[in-house]
User: Fold this.
Amino acid sequence: MDRIVECVPNFSEGRRPEVVGWLAEAVESVEGALVLGTHIDPDHNRSVVTFVAPPETVVEAALRVVARAAELIDLSAHAGQHPRMGACDVLPFVPVRGITVEECVALAHEAGRRIWDELGIPVYFYESAALRAERRNLADVRRGGFELLREQIGTVPERAPDVGEARVHPTAGACIVGVRPLLIAYNVTLNTRDLAVAKRVARRVRERDGGLLHLKALGFELESRGVVQVSMNLTSYERTNLHQAFEAVRREAEREGVEVLASELVGLVPQAALDRAAAHFLQLENYSPDLVLENRIAAAIERRKGGRP
Amino acid sequence: MDRIVECVPNFSEGRRPEVVGWLAEAVESVEGALVLGTHIDPDHNRSVVTFVAPPETVVEAALRVVARAAELIDLSAHAGQHPRMGACDVLPFVPVRGITVEECVALAHEAGRRIWDELGIPVYFYESAALRAERRNLADVRRGGFELLREQIGTVPERAPDVGEARVHPTAGACIVGVRPLLIAYNVTLNTRDLAVAKRVARRVRERDGGLLHLKALGFELESRGVVQVSMNLTSYERTNLHQAFEAVRREAEREGVEVLASELVGLVPQAALDRAAAHFLQLENYSPDLVLENRIAAAIERRKGGRP
Assistant:
């Protein structure tokens, strides 16, 4: 696949694994759509299906899984602490390879229109796909959840959907469709029990407080392990990569007299992020993906497919 | 490709690029054989074609390229400083993925028998494919080159080939077939003009003198750049990887009061070697290839090909 869009729908169902299996099947009923993983969270009664597809078929795959969720999940009977307002609650499109944010926004808008036209579910657009500034932030769109939305959607003008009539779908609620960057979730653990240290380090490294661009960070306690953790999201690894985040945390921890114990990835990481980290630490001056044996094999396979000698 | 053998034939032709093109074509006339690169060296009048193939077709691809070299190259008219004794001088098989050294030895022996049976070129086996201890080292097999071999092959018993009659092919000479490990060629440059420093560092890090296992190292001067270089071969990156070589060189250079300037890869590197370096420096405690987005996509493609849901 030369052009790849990732799509990460969140569903209001975390206690019936068979439902998550059927949702994944709905995705893979579409040519070129590949499920990379599913995650089920019984505590929050939510689940996530991560899939990739080329731009030509990603909207169709999204439509089928939203339709299947509307059949299988009855939001009016759903309980769970996590805020949610749809059977398929959030539908983010993520540019991965060979596609721009703008192109993904066009796909998200197409998906939103079809979700209303074909399924009768009203749609809100968030983050890069937002049509109103006050809807960029997902938490703002979702505040009060399904129950509050059901009351307000027809009476409070600023809660009217971006696509569709101002009424929730009786069982599937509403769907929040957006475009967000590929993000890397990355944690670094520190050799101390002092949460204040983790919080200070997090503050010093994150963009919001003058640290590294495209880096979000929070300090947490890992009680069971007796250590603390700086938990980070890197929203543009091309600009701020793992090694820069790691080194910034290590430097700020050292200032506190604390050592880095280890780091961990939460979820998937693009190959390029690891490669860039290796090249950085090895001071590799001639790194290029073209030097990697597996990439050369893949390129030779593509070349032969294309019929060139 | 689940199972991959790399094959890196060396040819006694480095001044006619069209010949190298035809040799590459001969390789790719075989199903599943993929040329990853060609290298032509006019100074030494030699060339290299690097290709990969599954074990089922790698011998056929090797046969075709040795046959084509015998047609195109006349060793009796060849000049060049580099020792050589065949049109296709050396034919190493390299286990890359899903195949053992022993299986590659069986492939090398099959290729050797066919090179004699079908092309009438006598064959010597070297390194892991050697049938006699004194032929493990390629340089020992090739000593004196084509001209000396032509004199001795029929008269000196220890120069008799491993396969075939004791006479050279009149224009294609003989072929040396072997199995060697996948190696990473990796150089680290040091911020000094003092060659003795590079030589001492090389000696301290290499296996031969009590350093790291599976690491060969030499010190060189890079006159044009006014620095020196520790030039290394890693013959088992699973045991001694880039990061261990880099850190050993850096440590020994520091003992000499010298800084590492940069490093460079010469030729191809397996993805796993870069990944392990990244995981080491980032202190990533949960690294697995399964966390890499591209690997997950490839696995999902394979899963769907296999018809599993």
Remarks:
- The longest strand of chain B covers residues 88-97.
- The CA atoms of residues 201 and 252 of chain B lie 6 Å apart.
